[in-house]
Specification:
alpha/beta; two-stranded parallel sheet; 13 strands; Rossmann fold
């Protein structure tokens, strides 16, 4: 009985603290037409302190969505256009000589912001990607002998184009794993497309005012951590991730030859965190199996390594995840 009272109190707390989600979504919808999944994914990343990798063809409002979110939160936003000639110093900063002070001083790079848009991240060489990796993982940057903490919240939102692969540097598995979510963005629906045309013909620019501060985001993250995760849901998350490693133990022998490696413990952690954030967005104080299923594809698709056999049979990681979700017992 005590636990049910706790859940009731938790629900009331989440109901109060998650009111801003509706305002954020409304603000995003004024600028971004459709793309409900993209908006939800960005919010999950923001509330879980996780970075997001967006993949989709050009022109699907990836950059616009990220910029809009940073404008709705009163925060600093920087965009880094990744190119083959980019250097690590162009991202994190460098030491420059000051003639006035007659000494070297630190010039901080564009990574020192709350929202960092790494546009076309796979266009830059490995050195640059590894410089960004330290910032993403450690939330700090080392320039010369000095180490600087990055501002809070700090969120890297990277985009990549799945079509043009000439002159690109595929992201190393270790770096891809640092992204909490990999979100695939699709074309808008026909009605949405017509609305987009209408909006652009009018040429009206939506004025965006900040709706909340960075401190409110940090407070909301503390509340997200309080969302109740039952032991049965923990077991469900562990089973899903373990079935990517040992599919034959879960009656999925047919996909064993398609998987080179399964999800790491980071997959389990991020699945739990994303499920909590999703429950929070839905204004609920506890996680249900549907929350886990809703975020499973985005959390796992970049964490499953496929064999040549899978590629030969045109099997992608999304199909494997769908088979796992259909097979693993729901609590």
């Amino acid at each position: 009985m005590a636990e049910s009272v706790d859940i009731r109190e938790l629900n009331e707390l989440i109901e109060r603290k998650s009111a801003f989600v509706t305002n954020l979504v409304t603000g995003m919808n004024q600028v971004i037409v459709g793309q409900k999944h993209l908006i939800e994914s960005l919010l999950i990343g923001l509330l879980s302190d996780g970075h997001v990798l967006l993949e989709g063809v050009p022109g699907l409002a990836k950059t616009k969505a990220i910029k809009t979110l940073s404008q709705l939160v009163d925060s600093k936003f920087n965009r880094i256009q990744f190119t083959p000639d980019l250097l690590p110093a162009d991202v994190i900063g460098t030491m420059i000589y000051s003639q006035k002070d007659e000494k070297f001083v630190v010039e901080q790079g564009p990574v020192f912001a709350n929202f960092v848009l790494a546009d076309e991240i796979n266009r830059a060489p490995a050195k640059v990607q590894s410089a960004l990796l330290e910032a993403m993982q450690e939330r700090q940057v080392t320039i010369g002998k000095n180490t600087f903490a990055l501002p809070k919240p700090f969120l890297v939102l990277a985009t990549q184009n799945p079509i043009e692969q000439e002159g690109t540097y595929p992201l190393p598995e270790a770096q891809v794993d640092r992204f909490m979510l990999k979100v695939i963005i699709d074309y808008p629906k026909l009605e949405e497309e017509k609305f987009i045309i209408r909006q652009h013909i009018k040429g009206e620019d939506q004025s965006i005012r900040p709706l909340l501060s960075t401190n409110e985001i940090i407070e909301a993250r503390d509340v997200v951590r309080k969302v109740y995760l039952d032991e049965k849901i923990e077991q469900y998350i562990a089973d899903i991730v373990f079935s990517t490693r040992y599919p034959e133990k879960y009656g999925l022998k047919e996909i064993k030859d398609y998987i080179e490696f399964g999800g790491s413990p980071r997959a389990s952690i991020n699945l739990a965190l994303a499920s909590r954030a999703y429950a929070f967005i839905k204004r609920r104080g506890y996680v249900i199996p549907e929350d886990v299923r809703a975020v499973a594809h985005d959390v796992l698709r970049h964490r499953i390594g496929l064999t040549y056999e899978a590629e030969a049979n045109n099997i992608n990681s999304d199909e494997i995840i769908s088979k796992i979700l259909n097979k693993v017992e729901v609590p």
